[in-house]
Amino acid sequence: VKPVSEETAPLSGGTEDEEAKSILVEPGSAGPVSALWWDSGAELLEMIDQTLLPTRLTVLQLRSVDQVAEAIRSLRVRGAPAIGVAAAYGMALGAREQWSAADPEIDQVTALTRLRALAASLRSTRPTAVNLAWALTRVLDAAERHLQSGKVVAELPACILSEAHSICAEDKAACAAMGEIGAALIKDGDSLLTHCNAGALATAGIGTALAPIFVAWSAGRRFEVFVDETRPVLQGARLTAWELARAGIPLTLITDNMAAHFMRRGGITSVFVGADRIAANGDVANKIGTYGLGVLAQAHGIPLYVVAPRSTIDLSLSSGDAIPIEERGADEVTSVLGTRIAPVGVKVANPAFDVTPSRYVAAIITEAGIIRPPFEAGLEKL
Amino acid sequence: VKPVSEETAPLSGGTEDEEAKSILVEPGSAGPVSALWWDSGAELLEMIDQTLLPTRLTVLQLRSVDQVAEAIRSLRVRGAPAIGVAAAYGMALGAREQWSAADPEIDQVTALTRLRALAASLRSTRPTAVNLAWALTRVLDAAERHLQSGKVVAELPACILSEAHSICAEDKAACAAMGEIGAALIKDGDSLLTHCNAGALATAGIGTALAPIFVAWSAGRRFEVFVDETRPVLQGARLTAWELARAGIPLTLITDNMAAHFMRRGGITSVFVGADRIAANGDVANKIGTYGLGVLAQAHGIPLYVVAPRSTIDLSLSSGDAIPIEERGADEVTSVLGTRIAPVGVKVANPAFDVTPSRYVAAIITEAGIIRPPFEAGLEKL
Question: Among residues 6-35 of chain B, which lie with CB inside 8 Å of chain A?
Answer without folding.
Answer: 10-13, 15
